[in-house]
Fold:
Amino acid sequence: MHQAKDLLVELGLEELPHAIIPKAICDFKDLFTGQLTEARIGFSGVLEFSTPRRIVLLVEQVGTRQDDFTEEKKGPSLEKAYLPDGSPSKALVGFLKGNGVSLNDIIERETKSGTYIFIVREIRGEETAGLLPVILDRTLKSLRFIKTMRWEKSGFAFARPIRWIVFLYGHDVIPYEIAGVRSGRRTRGHRTYHRDAVEISSTAEYESALLEAGVIARREKRVERIRKQVGSLCNAEKLKVPKAVESLYEINADLTELPRAVLCEFDEEFLELPSEVLISEMVEHQRCFPLETESVKELSNRFVAVSNIRDNSRTRFGYERVLRARLDDGKFFYNEDKKHNLKDLLQRLKSVTFHEKLGSMYEKVERIAKISGILGDLLSLDEGQTQNIREVCYLCKNDLTTLMVEEFPHLQGIMGFYYALSSGYSGIIAKGIREHYAPRFASDAPPETIEGAVVGIADRLDTILGIFSIGLKPKGSKDPFALRRKVLAIIRIILHHKLHFSPDMLLRKSIVLFKDDGDELRSEIESFFTTRIRTIFTDMGFSYDEIDASLSGSFENLYEAYRRVSALHEMRGDKNFDSLLISFRRMCNIIRGQKVAGFSEELLVQPAELALHRYYTGIREDVKKSIAERNYSEVYRTLSTFKPYVDGFFDTVLVMDNDKKLRNNRIGLLNEIVFLFSDIIDFSKIVQHGE
Amino acid sequence: MENMTFQQLIFHLETFWSKRGALAVQPYDIETGAGTFNPATMLRSLGPEPWYVCYVEPSRRPADGRYGENPNRLQLFYQYQVLIKPSPEDVQDIYLESIRTMGIDFIEHDVRFVHDDWESPTLGATGLGWEVWLDGMEVTQFTYFQQVGGIELEPISVELTYGLERLAMFIQKKDNVFNIMWNDSLTYGDVRKREEFEFSTYNFETADIEKHIRLFNDYEQESQFCLEKNLVLPAYDMVIKCSHAFNILDARGALSVTERTSYIGRVRNLAKAVAEAFVESRKAQGFPLLKGR
Structure:
């Protein structure tokens, strides 16, 4: 074992955008340690630090030399290495030359494909210190950011200007230079509390030296500190931080080197604004914590700001003033917007482009209304619902041109909800508008109202059909219109609302809005959907063979497919049932490719086939009835009672009898049995555990 | 230190930056939307010649007017603009010093550089940088230009744009812009409130839409005409005028979203043509400011 020393590399930067810090430090670590490993330099662990002004790695116990290693190089085969007179061939001479060795340095070695010439040599590891500059250089040049900038004459591009580099190996500085910055042992402290350089004499003292200079270098410690401070301010006021804004702890940690929370407040008059607006104003621009009452979860007029200095006695006034200005704006937008009746904003959508090849948002709304109508018919909705859905369609996008949504685009639908209410619409209509965007993200709930569900499906389907029809379907990781997510949302809504309808029919009737001859488009979209159906079913915990076995007909009625797979899934895991399924799969395999020539009871001879047949005819009508009633659990329960008869049959009866008549008759029997269940399960897709 | 008046704040910045070598020029005499539009920034940031300049720029944003009724919104406000090419290594420190010497103590006040990349679709310009927060209030836009008029810059300029009203509000602890003391006896409101009212009325209600569409077209043509005659600087003046005519049309609500995009594109095309012509023109003059370097 070589000796080892700790290695410290600190990249000192002008403030990094907070959102990129977590990935930047993670990539820095992966790339740098990857380079070490590739260079055969050992180390025992890595600590990482990050603040807005620095990303730092402390690599522990880095070996002072590369590991030695044995290099082996394969040359020409023995036959080709020497000429008949025993002198080296051209191939061998070339090999020697290329590797800078002589005939004395080679050996012959047996391999699977014959004897070959080899060079085997011990490469002694080089000193780590000499390799580190290249390792850091490669790391910095392979770091990738969404946006980079240039700032000095070398033209090196990085996320923000590099202003200093600390590069220490044990006590020694490793010389390195990039973008006009030379490495050294001098770092910088907090802008306010330590304006002089901070000398780091050895790696071990880095964290404490920075702390003394007013910087908490570990991100997780800053997160913890903010949590504690916000928590204690909240407790004193019986308030709490809403769940939805949890990410603020980390955001504020990535905006500060020495965070300090301060409790502030705004005028109660602003509480008349929708809480979503208040929260957006606090969170998105100011990164402040909104607070809600512990008991009733109502938004309070208190909030917490996080500063980067120790003493907040003077800062509070500033934070409150800034928020007041923002809320004034919000109030102005809200009141201006409310001057219009929401329905009057429909015309404005004519000047909002949905997609240049698919027309305006107004045209989209008209298509949404048509698709919603089609879906409503397929679902046999009542007149009241149909009327509501129509109303929601012609209102759902009207908030797009309001001042508030222009300021906070993600409040689309939410503002529509409030403006619908203030325009005198019923709660159901307002909710439908808000919910047609739900689920907005993976953990978001689907719409509660049927109005929101139907319009939400129609809106998404319109986008999917439209984008596919102009040839922009998702490719690989490129899905700029988030079509995959839209399909997943549609499926979730169908399952959540237990919507019984034929997606196939909906697609056929809607597709004419885009294309006269939509067959190709339809099959593309069907397979796009089917892939997502599998994804959702898999996420629900169903195994892939259960899904495959139950999926046929899913495009006639998706919700029933879900019920079939659930029913099947419930029975799985029972050993007897599983082995029964395998027996049924065997039946399928036997039938497959055989001409089924009918079946006659008189030709049954063996007791086991008679028993199987008798049992089958006994339960046949019950199974048909259960299937008709879509009582899949009952079907599977009945199926499971087949076990002894099926086992008996396969144990004692040879299907492939030499007598053709008997053979065909047996195939006919199996075919009838399998056919009885074929509407709900495809046995051939079943896979045995461990297969 | 006494709290600075609005005019003292301007004097302070003029002195601070000219002492450090900046050329103190004057506001441009055409309506600009921001200090960036002044040719001392937009054009001088192009090409290899060094440049270090500071000036006040009255900035017109017709759509932001509130008839003088909103304590924080104005259709005309003042920016203090600094452009340094090439960008110095310690520019953040110099900037902070300019704030500290206004009498703002960083022991008591929280100063922060918060990510805010900048983009001007009309100028074909982009940059990376921050908004600078003082106790959460944005008081400066701090940008490393990367591209102007569609041209990748080399060397890189850094642009500092101080919001003078906001700084004055901060220093004087006012929460209404009209209460800022401009000098010892007159407030910002005394000087400008009526102007805000009249221009808001004009921008939102009165400005003749047809005329401004015509003005836009005329300025656009004139700009192209100047370029044909190789008169780059007049051509650029017409770009600024186009941009202002567009802003008025926008405030009047005369443009649909699609039209808006198309107008912005037209200004950008002019700006790009001017930018290229400007670099050519400086080159033809032998990049005079490179001499002696």
Summary: The mean pLDDT of chain A is 93. The radius of gyration of chain A is 36 Å.
